[in-house]
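Preliminary data (for renewal application), magnesium ion complex.
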Amino acid sequence: MNIQDNFFLVKKHFLNVNNIITMIVLILINIIIFSSLTVIAFYFSFKSNYQNDVLNRTLIVYNENNSDNKIINNINNVELVENVKYLNDIYRDAKLFDTKTLKGEIILHTLIDKNDVSIVYGRNIEKSGEVICPQNFYPHYFYANDEAQNTKIYKSLYVNGSDYIGKSFKVNSKNSDYDNQDFEFKIVGTYKPLYSSSTINTCYLSKKDYDLISAKNLGEITSTLVDGTTEVETVEWKDLFVRVNNYNNVENVKKDIELLGYKVSYAQSYDNDMVNIILYIPIFIVLIVIIISFCLLYNFIKKKVKKRYNYYGLLTAIGFKNKDIKKMEISENSVMYIFSFLLSFIIYFVIYHILINGLFAEIIFSNYIIKIPGAFILLVMILYLSLIIIETNLCIDRTLQKDIRISLGEN
Amino acid sequence: MKSIIQIETADKKYIGKDEEVLALTNINLNFELGKFYVIIGHSGSGKSTLLNIIAFIERLTSGNYYFNDKNVEDLTKDELTKIRMENIGYIFQNFNLDPNLTAIENVMLPMLINRQIKKSERKEKAKKLLELVNMQHRVKHFPKALSGGEQQRVSIARALANNPNIIIADEPTGNLDKKNEKVILEILKDLSNQGKCVIVATHSSEIEKYADNLIQLEEGKVVKNEYTR
Ligand SMILES: Nc1ncnc2c1ncn2[C@@H]1O[C@H](COP(=O)(O)OP(=O)(O)O)[C@@H](O)[C@H]1O
Ligand SMILES: [Mg+2]
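Predicted structure:
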């Protein structure tokens, strides 16, 4: 039987209660699997981002005695030691980026190490008065650990950072030595963030420039915990921060510094057990759902084959080979799966976008991106299609082995 | 005339869980084209078994079956399926139409696996066959909308789809009233007059009148095999 005729029969037999119920069940199952896979994929991207994030290998050292940081610098695996003030963000209006609807605002952050960013266009900062901004740039207020504020981001207000290379903007100084003086900064390049603490409106400047425009004395370090709460600590500028070369060495370095008599805390920390739940629960759900759905599918196919027992007898009697019958049923079940797969993917896609643009918007715009795990989803489809082929083959083989006379409906 | 079907010293045994059933014993029969054969016998006498063997749906336990001089035992299942598709039209007591297909689609069903019939010719051919059984006015009806007699006529048209020279009918009128029985038998008789070998199993005495050759089975044995005309 050729493909066209095969699908002619598939079309004729497709619409029945059995198929429709199975499709609805499959759609539900698929959506659960897709969502769980998304969470699993997010876990891995979160984990790897987390470990690459410099803030997560940064320790705060309380330096009450105002001692020299050279000793700390010499500890194994310490990459650099700096004054803690350079971890601060400076929020400033920037007229250059004003639009009709929103004021221009950027965050200025000290570039601790040139390798903390990768340059997309232009070049890195080399001297005072230069900044680099994100290539995908949203130079407006959006979200700053400020619960009360609206976190909406207007997609249309994104700009190409590279369009601004060579342009300058003025920033007002809060340093009492300069008494409200404006300083001009020139954008010399655009960067791609390499770790999560940079946001869509963070521009980097040099340490020297930071000192020019920031307040001189006390500052605050705000850390956001995974559960969404923020912790604000007041820190004197004599305190230090230590960057460890690798996430895995953070614990050891912390101990080493503590042995020197310092009080040490993490710049950012998260609840490991809670994060692991992000992995284990969806894996558990996927496994359970896949096992259940395999059994369900098998039963569904078995039931259908049983129902069509007479029909197979007829087809055999008029000259259909077993191969033809199998081809017909495998096509029908595959078409059914592909239909439900497409439908569930569309529903999943819509839900995904609603959540991404709403509930999860804050997470998305940092480096912790929730992506559609396309490869995983395709794999699931292939898995189910193979399963359907195997199960259909099995059921039909078993059925056609039985006495054909009964299947011919004789009395 | 030469026989298209020759069955010699044939036995058919069914081996059940705790007993053996000898469904056919020492059968010697020949069938020729252009004749109307009627097989009679009580229920359980082996009529259906014999028809299924003739149609290669089941195989003999012992003995020989030559189809067109070819020994059926030497052919594979797929080869037999092909021969069946090209040579044998099967008609059932309960019609066995596909409820999802219209009358004409049901008639076209066997053509789907016949490479000899071009796709473009199928519809025309099916229409002609429905005309032959006087069903041209019900072409697009689904089986549900047809009476028993009409369904059996469609099923005869379907049996003729691949232009077989042998028509096998297992109690074709068992579910029909007298009037419809007559219509069906007339059609089958016509087919044998046109040169086909028609083999009908029945326990209706009405059909005996149509027979060129009457075969009576009793407990799996041929007890009567006579030319009636
Ligand atoms: N698959 C089978 N297994 C065991 N016995 C069978 C099987 N098929 C038929 N028989 C037996 O073979 C005998 C002949 O049956 P059948 O050919 O159907 O008779 P008829 O069609 O004349 O009523 C019966 O005794 C029946 O019970
Ligand atoms: Mg019978």
